[in-house]
Amino acid sequence: MLCPFCHQSDSRVLESRPLQEEVRRRRECLACKQRWTTYERYEVANLMVLKRNGRREPFDRAKLTRGISLACSKTGVTLAQVEHLVDEVEIQVQDCGEIAAQELGARVLASLRTLNEVAFVRFASVYHRYRQVSDFIHDLTRTEGR
After folding, report:
1. Where on the phi/psi map is residue 54: left (φ > 0), alpha (ψ -120 to 50), or beta?
2. Cα separations in angstroms, 122 against 55, 63, 71, 109
3. If we measure between CA atoms, which residue out of 82, 135, 73, 138 comes closest to residue 111?
4. Angle at 19 between CA 13 and CA 20, to 5 degrees
5. What is the pTM of this model?
6. Whole-angstrom distance between the N-terminal and C-terminal Cα of the chain?
7. Which of 22, 89, 100, 113 is deepest in the core (most CB within 10 A)?
8. What angle do CA 64, 65, 66 make, to 5 degrees?
9. What are the pLDDT digits (tens) for 104-138?
10. DSSP labels for the chain?
11. Nearest C-alpha neighbor of 140 from the set 127, 45, 20, 17
């Protein structure tokens, strides 16, 4: 672990605290004595996402977080809520091995619907690639009955 202050590789862990889906570690650089915090997450091993065009790519938590954060911008949804949503989706799919991008998007939409309606609408408009407002209204009224 490189020190973010002096970039030396020698550091020691002062404290470790397990959180829900990660481990928080308090570290100290042995060279400059500065302290910092790191968060370690479990990596979803070998989860592949099957894209619409048939391409496969590794699951990217950061990419999913960016997409959800963008949909949630200026809605009052906090970063902690976004992280929690991503954690939930990641836990749901971690044992799949391979998941279609459509299925991943559907899981995000289901979670967003309960979290924030505006974020749900924003994410859905990108996820479903609506071309016209009528397409969006048709899907929205169809899913409201569920």
Report:
1. left
2. 25, 16, 5, 10
3. 82
4. 150
5. 0.66
6. 49
7. 89
8. 90
9. 999 999 999 899 988 988 898 887 777 778 877 77
10. ---TTT--S-EEEEEEEE-SSEEEEEEEETTT--EEEEEEE---TT-EEE-TTS-EEE--HHHHHHHHHHHHTTTT--HHHHHHHHHHHHHHHTT-SEEEHHHHHHHHHHHHHHH-HHHHHHHHHHHTT--SHHHHHHHHHHHHT-
11. 127
Alpha carbon 27 to its chain's center: 25
Q: At a CB cut-off of 8 Å and minimum separation 6, what does 56 contact?
A: 48, 49, 50, 98
Query: How big is the CA angle at 128 (ends 61 and 72), to the nearest 5 degrees?
Result: 50
Handedness of CA 8, 9, 10, 13 (dihedral sign): positive
Tokens of 52: 């619409």
Token pair recorded at residue 14: 């002062």
pLDDT per residue as tens digits for the range 9-65? 999 999 999 887 789 999 999 999 999 999 887 765 678 999 989 999 999 889 999
Residue with tokens 């889906």: 21
